[in-house]
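B., you asked whether I could sanity-check this one before it goes into the benchmark set. Here's the sequence:
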Amino acid sequence: MQIGRLIRHTAATHWRTRMLFPSATLDAIEQAIARVEGAHSGEIRFAVETGLTPLHILNGMTPRARALDVFAHLRVWDTEHNNGVLVYVQLADRDVEIVADRGFQGRVGPAEWEAVCRLMEEHFRARRFKEGSIAGVDAIGDLLTRHFPPNLNPGVRSHNQLPDRPTLL
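And here's what the prediction gave me:
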């Protein structure tokens, strides 16, 4: 058991999360998602979690495992073309995870997703949460545009299947 991790998660407060991701930042992230989704047919969900429960920590849950749970809970997999992407920010562990649906298999490699995570974490270390979040959304948008172009049928626009508003867990 990792006592330091347990203390870090127990001490993490929702108040601090609201301070790092105020309404203006959530609005900016939502606008960035809406903007980039206009250039492709993929779907992006953004979730921020303050910390895990003591039971999660005692059971050794990793940020990646939690991101997979959140991916299912938010139904990111429930898109027409299996091209949903979850950006999961876990503040207590200072970790960013990206979970992509099965439509990305063989299209986007783990190194590309990892590069986006490291880009965001670099901004977050410098306390630039808004800028880092938008940079991550833009980078994901570039990957989605490459692999899932917008609906090219004239007069038919891809519909938004997932909410653009970031979720605070």
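One thing to flag: The mean pLDDT is 91. Otherwise nothing jumped out at me.
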